[in-house]
Specification:
This protein is mainly α and 80 residues long. It has a single domain (2-79), classed as Serine Threonine Protein Phosphatase 5, Tetratricopeptide repeat. The protein has 4 helices and no strands. The longest helix has 21 residues, at 31-51. The radius of gyration is 14 Å and the shape is elongated.
Length: 80
């Protein structure tokens, strides 16, 4: 799984019925896999929120992130 994520696999991809990889892992009792996928998706959502200027979604613990340039973060996200 980590190799797929390292190679750019999307944790946000959905099947036609709306299921995500996290949903499938959870349904099959693979809680550790589901937890990793959830963590990756959460990190991605946090960076996307930052890049879009939605700083209120970052939370107080991410105050250091605010010093980054959103344009740089957007560029990095486009590469992932």
């Amino acid at each position: 799984m980590q190799l797929l994520l390292d190679k750019g696999a999307s944790v946000l991809a959905r099947r036609r019925n709306g299921e995500t990889a996290e949903d499938i892992a959870s349904a099959r009792g693979q809680q550790q896999v589901a937890a990793v996928l959830r963590a990756v998706a959460t990190r991605r959502a946090t960076w996307t929120a930052f890049a879009m200027g939605q700083h209120e979604r970052l939370g107080e613990e991410s105050h250091w992130v605010r010093a980054l340039d959103p344009a740089v973060v957007r560029m990095i996200l486009e590469e992932v």
